[in-house]
Write a structure and sequence with these properties.
- The protein has 200 residues and is of the alpha/beta class.
- The chain has one domain: Rossmann fold (3-Layer(aba) Sandwich), CATH 3.40.50.300.
- Helix content is 30%, strand content 20%.
- The protein is built from five helices and seven strands.
- Strands 1-3-4-2-5-6-7 form a seven-stranded mixed sheet, sandwiched between helices.
- Strand 3 and strand 4 form a beta hairpin.
- 39% of the residues are buried.
Length: 200
């Protein structure tokens, strides 16, 4: 079964778990810290420039966005975490909403893969490690995508690859991909892992 990535729409913008769609489509969730490039990556995967909105103020938007791709799968954009300037109230809302995606999602059994983003220039942060530990504990299938690799030279790319591959908390990942939303390096590889996870 092929997916037409040109046939895509924003299905739902959910600020509460009870707003999550109940369509029986496999879900691929995108997780990462604020400003790691989630929206840019989703736009790159879908060959769009601005379907997923990039924010000038990282961490400002606290919603879970469901993108319907060809009526076959949902790409689910989770709120970015770890933004230092976010208020305590906003952090509590983020935690509640993101936790709700994993614990109160009526279609949690349809979550086939989490795409965990890590900024290649920084490497995994404490928040990234917390998320990786959570997914390992609950046996949630995931891959790790190192973003913004167009900003790295060959030596730096090798360093981040080795760091991720040798990190014990990354051992449960089903793949590590270097990605550039500028040159689209890694796009075919990520789609291949998504298709495999969904049995497409």
């Amino acid at each position: 079964m092929k997916i037409n990535v040109n046939n895509v729409s924003l299905k739902a913008t959910a600020g509460r778990p009870d707003q999550f769609p109940r369509d029986p489509s496999p879900q691929i969730a995108f997780s990462g810290r604020s400003n790691v490039g989630k929206s840019s990556l989703i736009n790159s995967l879908l060959r769009r420039k601005s379907l997923a909105r990039t924010s000038a103020s990282p961490g400002k938007t606290i919603t879970v966005n469901f993108y319907d791709v060809d009526g076959k799968i949902f790409l689910v954009d989770l709120p970015g975490y770890g933004f230092a300037k976010r208020s305590a109230e906003d952090k509590k809302r983020w935690s509640s909403l993101t936790d709700g995606y994993f614990t109160k999602n009526p279609n949690f059994d349809l979550l086939k893969l989490v795409v965990q983003l890590v900024d290649s220039r920084i490497g995994p942060t404490k928040d990234d490690f917390d998320m990786l530990a959570f997914m390992a504990e609950y046996d949630i299938p995931h891959i790790i995508v190192a973003t913004k690799v167009d900003k790295l030279n060959a030596t730096e790319k090798k360093k981040i690859t080795e760091q991720l591959e040798n990190e014990p908390l990354c051992a449960n990942a089903e793949g590590v991909v270097l990605y550039s939303a500028v040159s689209h390096t890694g796009r075919d590889e990520v789609w291949g892992l998504i298709a495999s996870a969904c049995g497409l």
